[in-house]
Amino acid sequence: MGTEKITPAGFIVVDTTGLGAIWGYGATESDAWGDFAAEMAKAGVTVLDDAAADGREWDGSWTQRGDYEARPATAALLKMVDERGGTISHQTIGGVACTQDERDATDETDATDETDA
C-alpha cells in the first residue's frame, strides 16, 4: 500500500438496494442527479419520489428515488464511469467513492467494496 489520499472531485448517484450500480455522475451533486434523471429517462424508467410510490400500482418500469444516493467521488472514478458506464466495481473510503487502483494505493483501512461487475 502507498500513501495516496482519496480526494473528491465530483459526485456519483448510486443504487443503494444492493447492486451498487452508478446511474449518474457529475462535477456537482446537482449535475449527478441531473445525469441520473437523464439516464433513467433513456432507460425508460420513471423515477418516483418515495411518497408517490407508496402503496400504488404503476404501469411500466419505475424506481423510487429513495433507493439512490449521491456520493462524493474521485476524478479517476468519474473518468472510469465516463468511459465505461456505471456498471463497474468501486470502493468507498471515508465516504468518497474511488477506483480499486486508488484503494490499493492508500493506507486507508475503512474501505467498503461496491462490486457491480
Fold and architecture overview:
The protein has 117 residues and is an alpha+beta fold. Helices cover 28% and strands 28% of the residues. The chain is built from four helices and eight strands, in the order ββαβαββαββαβ. Strands 2-1-5 form a three-stranded antiparallel beta sheet. Strands 7-6-8 form a three-stranded antiparallel beta sheet. Strands 3-4 form a two-stranded parallel ribbon.
Ordered list of secondary-structure elements with their pairings:
Blueprint: E1 10-15, E2 22-26, H1 29-42, E3 46-48, H2 50-53, E4 62-64, E5 68-73, H3 75-84, E6 90-93, E7 96-98, H4 100-104, E8 112-114
In short:
The protein is α+β, with helices and mostly antiparallel strands and 117 residues long. Helix content is 28%, strand content 28%.
Backbone structural class: alpha+beta
- Cα gyration radius (Å): 15 Å
Instruction: Give the ordered list of helices and strands.
Output: EEHEHEEHEEHE
Could you give the order of strands across the largest sheet? 2-1-5
Q: Can you tell me the residue ranges where pLDDT is under 50 for at least 5 consecutive residues? A: none
The mean pLDDT is: 85
Q: Fraction of residues in helices?
A: 25-40%
Task: Pick out its properties.
117 residues; alpha+beta; 3-stranded antiparallel β-sheet
